[in-house]
Amino acid sequence: MSENAHNVTAYTEYASPAIAPDPGDGKAVVLIAAWLENARKRSRNTFESYRRTSAGFCRWIALRGAGGLLAALSACTPSVVTAWLSITGGKAASRAQRLACLRSLFRALAADGLVTGNPARDVAVARGVARTVEHHRPVPVARLRGILAKLPETPHGKRDRVLLLLGSVMGLRRSELAGLTLADVQLDGDAPSIRIRGKGLRVDH
Predict the structure, then answer these.
(1) Rounded Cα–Cα distance for residues 167 and 148 (Å)
(2) Is 126 helix (H, G, I), strand (E, B) or coil?
């Protein structure tokens, strides 16, 4: 049996008499096998981790529902990924590696059109605990204009107006805005610039 055929066989282990076969599962299994074969380009330890993680996750998620593997993968949400990471346990580094595997797997499935999103992308692992990442919606333009209009024409009011506009237009973090000084603003010359101090002492212009 070829290695690729062996991979396909490994991903059919989730099947049980309680699960009705689905025509789309074959496509999913073949794609997962191809993705895993591509993972061989990584180190052996990483490849083995990807193999165990993806096989375990596929079996677990397929057995949770009644629609087969592809249906389960398509319906997967960040909370489902978080639940599986919590069940599997282990140290933070191990969970982070499993999460990286699932992100890669869902990227491959999405690229081939088998799923529409990447639920693992919105999950983070911190101090050994998996959690769903909350994405804050941007402030609507109309509301931002209302906030700006209420700011007083004082030095502090003008400062706050500039910070709000910079944060909204450039998508800066609060820490990056708080770290700005007048020396970071360069208005001379043909190309005005602002020096931003990011995470890890990174400096952007």
Answers:
(1) 13
(2) strand
Nearest to 69 by CA among 26, 112, 109: 26
Question: Do residues 64 and 41 lie in contact, with contact meaning Cβ atoms separated by under 8 Å?
Answer: no
Phi and psi torsions of 185, nearest 5°: -100, 120
76 contacts: CB under 8 Å, gap ≥ 6: 61, 106, 115, 119
Over the stretch 155-174, which tens digit does the pLDDT of each residue have? 888 888 888 888 777 777 77
91 φ, ψ (degrees, to nearest 5): -75, 165
Tokens 């190309």 appear where?
Answer: 191
Helix (H) / strand (E) containing 129: strand 129-132
DSSP strand pairing (123-126 vs 193-194): unpaired
Q: Is the pTM of this model over 0.70?
A: no
Task: Locate 72 and state its tokens.
Answer: 């389960």
